[in-house]
Amino acid sequence: MLIPLRPGELQRLIPAVATGNQFRVSLGTPQEVLQRLMVAAIGGVITLLISQSQMSSRWGPFWLVTGVVFLLYVLWGPILQAGQRNATLRRYPAAALFEGEVSDVITRERIENRHEQADSRGRLELVENRRTWMLLELEDEEGYLGRVAFPMDKKHQSIRRGSLIRCLVLSERKDFSKIGALSDAWLPGLKMWVGEYPFLLRPAFEELCQLRINRR
Predict the structure, then answer these.
(1) How confident is the model at residue 133 (pLDDT cuts 50, 70, 90)?
(2) pLDDT tens, 25-48?
(3) pLDDT tens sequence across 163-185
(4) Would you state the pLDDT for residue 213?
(5) Would you kindly state where each structural domain of the chain is located, as residue ranges?
(6) Alpha-carbon distance 85 to 63, whole Å?
(7) How far apart, in whole angstroms, are the C-alpha atoms of residue 194 and residue 183?
(8) Which of 35, 197, 21, 22 is nearest to 113 (CA)?
(9) What is the structure's pLDDT at 163?
């Protein structure tokens, strides 16, 4: 079942500015956080040193501001990244609430990253870090809709075929004849959210489902 959103509802559900949840996800792995810290420290120190030597010139304030921007990269980097991800769904001209069921549950191993390290004999070997992902196939009375994929956790083992599921459907077409994207999803029977990235303002989405689906 698809229920088209009214004007302004998509923007209320997916904010332009990063939420706390989105910021935490966009921070990334400890390695990515460390990389941002290094960029912030190196860039900040260099530009602040330049600003000190240029204080008597008209470029002094510019370099000072640039140095502060670099030092705050650890904060604004994830915020900017989250805003860009939000914009990928906010740009769609058509959005609708979807209510259907999980038609299939699939697990797959994905390679997170590769790196070389020396073995006990000093020879380099390729090491792959793998993670199990869960893929949920979604359908309603009209047939197959799409797939939601996310890193699997222990709590996800309770998800079964036939579980009720709700999410946002985005399309370039008003008739939704071609699906462009799906948001993260809510399984009300399990009181569980799933998805690779938390696009939706979750309390607002649950409230909208109460108003637009449960009262039909």
Answers:
(1) very high
(2) 877 666 666 777 777 677 666 776
(3) 999 999 999 988 888 999 999 99
(4) 80
(5) 2-16+91-214, 25-89
(6) 30
(7) 10
(8) 35
(9) 93
CA-nearest of 84, 132, 85, 127 to 106 is: 132
For 90-109, how does the pLDDT look when each residue is reduced to its tens digit (9 = 90+)? Answer: 999 999 999 999 999 999 88
CA dist 145 and 136 (Å) reads 11
Determine contact, residues 210/195, Cβ cutoff 8 Å.
Answer: no
Tokens coding 85:
């991800």
**Is 194 exposed, middle or buried (CB count within 10 Å of its CB: 0-12, 13-18, 19+)?**
buried
Q: How far is residue 179's CA from residue 211's CA, in Å, rounded to a whole number?
A: 24
Q: Mean pLDDT score of the chain, rounded to an integer?
A: 83
CB within 8 Å of 141: residues ≥ 6 apart: 1, 100
> What integer is the mean pLDDT of 6-16?
91
